[in-house]
Each structure stands twice: as structure tokens, then as C-alpha cells.
Specification:
With 293 residues, this protein is an alpha+beta fold. Helices cover 49% and strands 13% of the residues. Strand 4 and strand 5 form a beta hairpin. It is globular.
């Protein structure tokens, strides 16, 4: 198997994990895909990456986090010894805790070895275990790597206070299993009913059987963002999935994702992605052209 072709890897319904290294070219153009990536930066004086609208100059040992549907580019970096871990969006959405972690850290893209040495050390040890297992002949290597991926995410979450000090007190809050089940029920309902007439926070709190204020506090703690921002994030995830299919018009994408108007869809999309939905769709088409060369 050629482990250097990581950017064109396609997850099917039976795959959740992939890993790659050993790519000779130092750059890869701006693109996006439905799966997420974790990059362990390789050696060399220049390691420049871009995620969404931000460019990062990194050093060996830093981590780059690219969540599903995010635009990213390898501008100039070592890709021969850098390690790339890829995980399917379906896998991350399979457990509420993984969803919670992914949404909480959605705006976190870099973990620097100089700023977070202990965390990076722990994450590096997990990544090294993944590499050893994935490149072995173990018949259960994907399952073992997925277990390590969950450990990676849990380790990151254990260091939450390093990234969001103001949530330190909330982080210590413990909710009952019943409350968490209600939150899962509500979030699953929203994801499956984005075109519903009423997805207001008050209505969802009533569905969960708790007060609006309590619902708001729990939601912020569990997802790392307020309700309206989370709802727009879920709508954008749906929209970016639909944009893959060029037979669906941009107006249909907006409506099927639950946006009430085209201007609202364009504004929210541009605020998050830094470009219009049509431009974003073109990037995916460009990636497909590269794959078919």
C-alpha cells in the first residue's frame, strides 16, 4: 500500500480511520473534505500550513487539527516524515462525547509543543502507538487505532482549561445520566429535522423537559458554544455535505440545511468559511480533478 496518497483517501461505509506519511512534495493546494485530519508536523526549518483563513508557521512536534469540512492547505512543509491521521465524520458523530469534544474544539487548529509541552508529549505518545499498530499486520489495527483516537480526544479534553480558562468552573460540573440522555435526544432531533418550523432554544428546552436557562448553561458546557452558534454550525455541516452534489442548487442547499433565506445562508457561510458557498463548492471540484489526474 502507498501510504503517501493521504489527501485523496476516500472513506467508505466500513472505514473510520486512516494514516499516512512519506509524501515527497512539500505542498498541497487549498481543499476540503468530509473527514477530519490530525497532522503531526515533521522536521525542517519551514513548516507552513493554512487552515480556513489563518496561516501557521510551525515546528517539529506541533499538531495541526483539521475538523471535517474545513478548508486547509499545506503551503510549504515536510510531508516525508510528517504523520497524518484521518478519521471519518461518521465515527466522530457516533458518540455524543466525541461530538461534544469536536464542537468544543472546532476553533482550535494548532497545539504547539512550546506552549503545551505536557499535552503534546501525551498526544505524541498516542500518535506513535497508532503508527506502530497501523503499519503492522494486526488484523484489528483499525479498531485499535480508533480506540487510540478516542484516547487522543479524551486527553485533549483533559487539558481543556489550558485553552479556555474561563470555563474552568463549568468544566467541573457533572450532569446526571438522565440529563445527558435528554441532551443527546435533543441534538439528534435537531440534526434529523433541520427544516423543522421551530428549532428555537425555548422549544428544545421544553422537549428536554428543563428550563430554558438551565438548558442554555448545559448546552454551553457540553458543546463549548451557545445554542444559536451550535445550530448554525450543524446547518453548515449539512450544507457542506450537500455542496458535494453539484446537481443540488445553492438555493436548495440553503433550504435543506434549515436557513430561512439565501442572504442569511451566505452571511453565515462566509463568516465561517471566508468565502461564498459557490466558491467553496469549486474547491471540492478542484480536489476531485486532482484525484482523477
Amino acid at each position: 500500500m502507498d501510504y503517501s496518497q493521504y489527501e485523496i483517501y476516500e472513506f467508505d461505509n466500513m472505514s473510520a480511520f486512516n494514516m499516512s506519511t512519506g509524501y515527497e512534495e512539500r505542498s498541497y493546494p487549498m481543499h476540503w473534505h468530509s473527514y477530519g485530519e490530525i497532522m503531526l508536523v515533521g522536521p525542517g526549518e519551514i513548516n507552513k500550513y493554512r487552515v480556513n483563513q489563518t496561516t501557521y508557521d510551525l515546528i517539529e512536534g506541533d499538531f495541526v487539527l483539521i475538523w471535517p469540512m474545513e478548508m486547509h492547505e499545506v503551503i510549504d512543509a515536510d510531508r516525508m516524515e510528517a504523520l497524518v491521521i484521518q478519521f471519518s465524520n461518521a465515527f466522530m458523530n457516533s458518540l455524543f462525547d466525541l461530538q461534544r469534544i469536536m464542537h468544543f474544539y472546532k476553533n482550535l487548529h494548532i497545539i504547539c509543543i512550546n506552549s503545551h509541552p505536557e499535552l503534546v508529549k501525551e498526544l505524541r505518545e498516542i500518535a506513535d502507538k497508532m503508527k506502530k499498530i497501523f503499519f503492522s499486520d494486526s488484523p484489528n489495527r483499525e479498531l485499535q487505532c480508533c480506540m487510540l483516537l478516542m484516547e487522543f480526544m479524551l486527553t485533549l479534553d483533559d487539558h481543556r482549561d489550558e485553552f479556555v480558562p474561563e470555563l474552568k468552573e463549568l468544566h467541573g460540573s457533572i450532569y446526571s445520566e438522565d440529563i445527558m440522555r435528554r441532551m443527546v435526544m435533543v441534538t439528534d432531533y435537531i440534526k434529523n429535522n433541520l427544516t423543522a418550523d421551530d428549532l428555537s432554544q425555548g422549544t428544545m428546552a421544553n422537549m428536554a423537559g428543563i428550563s430554558k436557562d438551565y438548558f442554555s448553561r448545559i448546552f454551553k458546557n457540553v458543546t463549548g458554544m451557545n445554542y444559536s452558534k451550535w445550530l448554525n454550525t450543524i446547518r453548515l455541516e449539512k450544507a457542506t455535505t450537500l455542496l458535494i452534489n453539484e446537481k443540488i442548487t445553492l438555493t436548495e442547499v440553503a433550504m435543506l440545511s434549515g436557513f430561512q433565506s439565501i442572504p442569511s445562508f451566505n452571511r453565515v457561510f462566509h463568516d465561517e468559511k471566508g468565502m461564498a458557498p459557490g466558491e467553496y463548492r469549486s474547491l471540492f471540484a478542484g480536489k476531485e480533478e486532482l484525484k482523477n489526474r
